[in-house]
Structures are given as structure tokens and as C-alpha cells.
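SAMPLE LOG
Freezer: B-3
Tube label: C17
Construct: single chain, 179 aa
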Amino acid sequence: MNPDLKLLSELVPPPTSPVCADSGWQEVETKLGVELPSDYKAFVSIYGSGSLQAIIHIVNYSDNRVSSEELISVVFSQLESYKDSGKCEEFKAFPEEGGLLPFASTDDGNYLFWKTKETSQQWAVAAYDFTSGTIVYVPDMGMVNCLLRLVQKDNPFGDRFCNIENFNPPCTFVPWQGE
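STRUCTURE (predicted):
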């Protein structure tokens, strides 16, 4: 197990019965046209669909109850409307080269993305901060390391994205039941 995922699972115990934890990645990746990062797939395999600390809602591309295409479209439609109103800087959207692909959202309009590159192991993490309208890029950081740092109250985005005081222990992961 990835050391960051091991530590995260000690700090935030995975659900005993994760929802949609182990779907066929090959089918998902074929549909998206890209290989997803291995730390993300490992995270989903033990946590499934749900929310970290009821704040960060993880996108589970293997959860067939949610259309990947629709989810991506909704996120970028929202960001485009923010951009049109001056609440978001310029960005490239997936599947454009170097485009952003969402992996989490918050209730207050913030998003976590991967900034895609040729291979998924090179992808950087980016956060859209609704309050400032900025996108903060953090190179050389994977999704699991990003979540671990937030849980450890070490915000990799500085004062952007979310209030780390929301991560007071005990931190929890709540499975998404949905429909």
C-alpha cells in the first residue's frame, strides 16, 4: 500500500462496507480515454464513494450511478459561468492537453483537480478556490498526499481552497449512499 494511503487510512478509517469500491478500471479509463492515477484507484478501492469529513466529496469515476461525462460537463459549465462573471481565471478543461480533470468538490463551490499530462503519474493537483476565483497548482503532489496533508491540517494550497480547521480529529469518511 502507498505509504500516504496507509497513513491516511490510519487517520481516517475507511468504511467497513465501502460503496462502489471496486469497479472495472479498464472500462472507466477506456470511457474517459485516459489512465487514472494509481493512488486515486487505490484510494477508491478502500474508501469507495463518499465524503471526507463531510466537506470534500470525492469523485468516484468507477461509480456507475454517476455519469462521468455529465459530471465533468457540469463542473466545467459551472467554472465557465464563474469565468464569465470574473470569478475564475483562465483554465484548460479535460480532455484538452494539460486540462483539468475533477476529483473532488466542496459544498461551497471549490474543486480539486488533476492537471493532466501525458502519463497520469505526472499529473499535478490543482484547487479552484471560489472565494478568490483562483486556481492554485501544486506540482509533484498526488491526490492521496493532498488529502493526507489536509487531514494533517497542512493546507497545500496556502490559505486557499478550504479551512483546515474543519479537519479537527476525529476525521471521518462517510460513504455516499445516493440512489
